[in-house]
Amino acid sequence: MDIKQMKYFVEVVNQDGMTNASKSLYIAQPTISKAIKDLEKELNMPLFDRSKRQLVLTDAGKIFFQKCKEILTLYNDLPKEINSLLGLETGHISIGLSAVMNMNQFIHILGQFHQQYPNVTYNLVENGGKMIETQLINDEIDIGITTLPVDKTIFHSIPLYQEDLRLVLNKEHELARYDEIEMHMLKDEDFILFNEDFYLNDKIIEAAKNAGFIPNTISKISQWNFIENLLSAHLGVSILPEKYCEYA
């Protein structure tokens, strides 16, 4: 059974006979007749009551006719739906976003995307970079926006922008008077960091070890605003993307 046979059958019913269907489809009548017989043979039941002079569907034929119309409608709509999907004309995207990211920069990018594809809806899920990678692997999100590095054997990555890291501390901190600070100068400081789910945490610990010490981390947090509050309260120091320095 194939789409062509279904088309022939539906057209025969719509045209009240094979003769009119043959003219409508520009196909020889024997070809249509054979297609109908092949369908009946495969279904193992008659679709037409041939004891009548006029074209009459059997009960099975009536059911098959309705199903064929549904299938043909889906079949005819399929190219349009695929083109919409591939062309991103419509659809839904789930985006995993790291709390470390520059939100203003991302919103600008998202705004440009929305202007180009206004019918695409999106859902934003905030997590750490490691969780975002897990969600991608499990098909829980479509796109992840996070910091490098990523496993290039698993993921395809596209750089959006580059941002330096800066030491962030209270303005009254004794180190605030320095224009430049070496990593080893922080060995006696209390660190306030993002939690282990963030690659930034790994980078800071690695940099500290390279400077000869293990950072004394007094708090691990998943939200930037909590880190900001602790820094304002003079409870420690942190190393954050440069953009956060505008708000610190």
TrEMBL record:
Signal sequence, start to end: none
Keywords: DNA-binding, Transcription, Transcription regulation
GO CC entries: cytosol
Pfam family, one: LysR_substrate
Domain HTH lysR-type: 1-58
Top-rank taxon, per record: Bacteria
GO MF assignments: DNA binding; DNA-binding transcription factor activity
Family designation: Belongs to the LysR transcriptional regulatory family.
Name assigned to this protein: Transcriptional regulator
Gene source species: Staphylococcus gallinarum
Lineage: Bacteria, Bacillati, Bacillota, Bacilli, Bacillales
